Amino acid sequence: MQDTFNVKAITLIVKAKERGFRVATAESCTGGLVSAALTDIPGASDVFDRGFVTYSNAAKIDMLGVCAAVIDAYGAVSAETAQAMAKGALEHSLADVAVAITGVAGPGGGTPQKPVGLVHFACAKRGAEVVAIERRFGPLPRREIRQAAVDQALDLMISALGD
């Protein structure tokens, strides 16, 4: 999986550099793994502005400006919270594109409505609508859910940069 991350991170960095874009991350259940995948690549400093690890609700509110009412109404693991996180990452950075990830990595913490393996993603690009997607990776081991989430987040950012 690490080789896949490297290829995707390189692709993202090259595309962002070609377009003159800077990127940021807002990560909850991945705990900085997307940022780590990017910063593993030489030249990342040309495009990677910053990463926010907002594992707690308080961090989402304090660091990204997510409205507490959004978390109260929809939960930390929701499309609405992911979208607010992505928008907040743009507002609190110099980035042109930001990705947000929030989910239930397990093995505990799941509910029938929000089972282990549920992850919400959002990608915000200045001047464009926020793209939000939901993935249900299933009751995989925690590490596999987090790796799958990193893979999906990199794909989402690459897509946002266009061809």
UniProtKB/TrEMBL annotation:
One Pfam family recorded for the sequence: CinA
CinA C-terminal domain span: 13-159
Protein name in the entry: Competence damage-inducible protein A
Organism: Methylocystis iwaonis
Gene of this entry: cinA_2
